[in-house]
């Protein structure tokens, strides 16, 4: 009985290698596009790094397919590590070289997004206000939305190599200035403390100590003001000031001469801040 004949497979057509190479190239382009447009800057930094390496492995496989298709598996890699000899050829070479090389590549190629989340001491979002971003090349400003976020898009990682400065202001909260160094665009959280309120009160009278109503007393150059009532008394609160600050109080009434009083804040309750006004001649 004659042994069965084993037929040898014929050479693989060159079109097959061309097809493998083309598919590998398309998958490589897709990996890069997907990471830059769907992953980077859209997820947390920790998750982004994990996805980066998963995509890097897929990219390595597709790159090795290009090597396999174009060079028909002629690349080899051999050596010894920790007493173990290895001999790799064909697609395995591309996977190893691309994945290992990816650890030395910047993970943030292209532009990303820097999100500033602003909360208060009760861990609730601060709504309203603005965040000013200072980098070496420029200054940008972004409003804080109703969820407590200020988002800066199109951030180049190179712009964050040096220290950046963040200036956060919101009505009712103490101004916060932060100097920091960010390795990559991502998200950071900043807590604002409630601003201490200074109470200002007093009476407005004429030289004969008669009360003057409807006189506006305001902190010069600010939105803080109060108006005297029938007995001449007025009161209002101011924020964003601390003990030791000096402010200018200005009176305003069309029948009386305006007066400016310089006031140094030395306590939380600045009562007895009186004004004596001179009536304007008719």
Describe this structure in words.
The protein is 23% helix and 32% strand. The chain is α+β, with helices and mostly antiparallel strands. The protein has a 4-stranded antiparallel β-sheet with strand order 5-4-7-8, with no helix packed on it. Strands 10, 13, 16 and 17 form a 4-stranded mixed β-sheet that branches. A 4-stranded antiparallel β-sheet has the order 12-11-14-15, with no helix packed on it. A hairpin with a 7-residue loop joins strand 14 (246-252) and strand 15. Helix 1 runs antiparallel to helix 2 and helix 2 packs antiparallel against helix 3 (91-102). The termini are far apart.
Query: What Rg do the Cα atoms give?
Result: 35 Å
Measured by DSSP, the beta-strand proportion falls in: 25-35%
Strand order of the largest sheet: 5-4-7-8
Treating each run of at least 4 consecutive H or I residues as one helix, how many helices?
3
**Main beta sheet, described?**
4 strands, antiparallel
Distance between the termini: 138 Å
Mean pLDDT: 76
Unreliable runs, pLDDT <50, ≥5 residues?
72-77
Shape: rod-shaped
Number of strands: 17
Query: What is the ordering of alpha helices and beta strands?
Result: HHEEHEEEEEEEEEEEEEEE
State the secondary-structure class: alpha+beta
Number of domains: 3
Helix content: 10-25%
């Amino acid at each position: 009985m004659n042994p069965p004949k084993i037929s040898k497979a014929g050479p693989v057509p060159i079109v097959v290698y061309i097809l493998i190479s083309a598919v590998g190239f398309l998958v490589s382009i897709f990996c890069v596009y997907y990471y830059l447009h769907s992953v980077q800057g859209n997820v947390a930094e920790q998750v982004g790094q994990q996805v980066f390496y998963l995509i890097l492995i897929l990219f390595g496989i597709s790159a090795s397919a290009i090597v396999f298709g174009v060079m028909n598996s002629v690349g080899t890699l051999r050596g010894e590590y920790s007493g173990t000899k290895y001999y790799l050829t064909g697609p395995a070479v591309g996977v190893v070289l691309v994945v290992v090389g990816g650890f030395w590549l910047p993970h943030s190629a292209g532009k990303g997004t820097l999100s500033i989340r602003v909360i208060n001491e009760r861990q609730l979002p601060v709504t309203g206000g603005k965040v000013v971003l200072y980098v070496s090349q420029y200054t940008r400003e972004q409003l804080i939305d109703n969820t407590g976020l200020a988002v800066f898009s199109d951030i180049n990682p190179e712009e964050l190599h040096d220290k950046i400065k963040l200036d956060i202001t919101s009505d009712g909260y103490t101004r916060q200035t932060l100097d920091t160094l960010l390795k990559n665009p991502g998200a950071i959280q900043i807590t604002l403390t409630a601003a201490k309120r200074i109470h200002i009160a007093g009476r407005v009278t004429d030289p004969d100590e008669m009360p003057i109503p409807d006189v506006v007393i305001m902190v010069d150059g600010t939105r803080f003001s109060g108006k005297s009532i029938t007995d001449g008394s007025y009161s209002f609160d101011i924020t964003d000031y601390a003990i030791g600050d000096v402010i200018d109080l200005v009176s305003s009434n069309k029948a009386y001469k305006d007066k400016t009083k310089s006031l140094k804040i030395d306590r939380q309750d600045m009562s007895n801040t009186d004004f004596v006004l001179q009536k304007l001649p008719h």
